[in-house]
Design goal:
The complex is a heterodimer of chains A (140) and B (125). With 140 residues, chain A is an alpha+beta fold. Chain A has 4 helices and 5 strands, in the order βααββααββ. In chain A, strands 1-2-3-5-4 form a 5-stranded antiparallel β-sheet, covered by helices on one side. In chain A, helix 1 runs antiparallel to helix 2 and helix 2 runs antiparallel to helix 4. Chain A is globular, with a radius of gyration of 14 Å. With 125 residues, chain B is α/β, with parallel strands linked by helices. In chain B, helix 1 runs parallel beside helix 2. The longest helix of chain B has 20 residues. The chains are: A alpha+beta (140), B alpha/beta (125). At the A-B interface, helix 1, helix 2 and helix 4 of A face helix 2 and helix 3 of B.
């Protein structure tokens, strides 16, 4: 993220442990997106991205957190979603974000799909240490 | 939150009322597959108008549900996919492959009526 992008005060951290936490995380994300001024349709895209990211945490890492926050860059406002876990990490990040790749019998669409739903997407993953995905959507 | 399942004529109608977690979705799948046998239903309608998000797990569970009920002799149709949910599904690359969809409950019922009538004609021939 560039220096000029500022995270606003409003930030929610949702611990992700069991599948009902997935629902809580995406509801927080949708509520924040609406407050930032996203349309219901755009808020659905953000909520769907959060659902996939938190699902990855439950399936692969068993524990982690989703942070949703409002961001602004000059006149532009947006929502940033950070999915952080201390799970096994991803061996081949490039393949995992290219689509059609999965090691847990899932659809293998998760990360590639999240990249398409959001405007900016960044992933840092270290084997044995964990994975952090940062995805931002800007209001047009 | 359990999803209420109504029995109407030869059909089962499940109306999702709120956001569902994975367990709720799996329970819905099991309940419909079981009740198709219990009530000898010919068709199943799953109304997802109130579903907040269709992610890869929800799509896979609904697809499995449709394929499982078909193996038990009942057609499933998904109704009420909202425009923004449809948009998110396409962006995410989710397809409900081999699963019928209709605009709303009314269209879903007429789809099943056509489908099951065809089935009856097919047998009598």
């Amino acid at each position: 993220m560039g220096d000029h992008i500022r995270t606003l005060a409003e930030e929610t951290v949702v611990p992700i442990r069991v599948d009902s936490d997935i629902v809580a995380a995406r509801q927080h994300g949708r509520a924040l997106a609406s407050r930032v001024g996203f349309s219901p349709g755009e808020a659905t895209l953000i909520a769907t991205a959060i659902s996939e990211l938190s699902r990855n945490i439950v399936h692969y890492a068993t524990y982690g957190e989703i942070i949703v926050a409002a961001v602004e860059n000059g006149a532009r406002r947006g929502v940033v979603v950070v999915a952080r876990d201390k799970g096994p990490g991803i061996a081949d990040v490039r393949r995992a974000t290219a689509g059609g790749y999965s090691t847990s019998g899932g659809l293998g669409l998760g990360l590639a799909g999240v990249r398409r739903l959001m405007d900016e997407f960044d992933i840092v993953s270290d084997l044995g240490i964990g994975t952090t995905v940062t995805a931002t959507k800007w209001k047009l | 939150m359990p999803v209420p399942i109504l029995k109407q004529r030869d059909y089962l109608i499940a109306s999702i009322q709120a956001a569902l977690n994975d367990e709720d979705l799996k329970r819905l799948r099991e309940a419909l597959v079981a009740q198709v046998g219990e009530f000898r239903s010919r068709g199943v309608i799953v109304d997802i108008t109130a579903l907040d998000v269709m992610d890869s797990f929800a799509a896979r569970t609904l697809r499995d549900l449709a394929h499982m009920t078909r193996l038990r002799g009942a057609e499933t149709v998904i109704v009420g996919i909202q425009p923004e949910v449809a948009f998110a599904m396409v962006q995410l690359g989710l397809t409900l492959e081999g699963v019928a969809a209709a605009l709303d409950l009314e269209e879903g019922l007429s789809y099943l009526d056509r489908k099951t009538r065809q089935g009856v004609r097919g047998v009598s021939r």
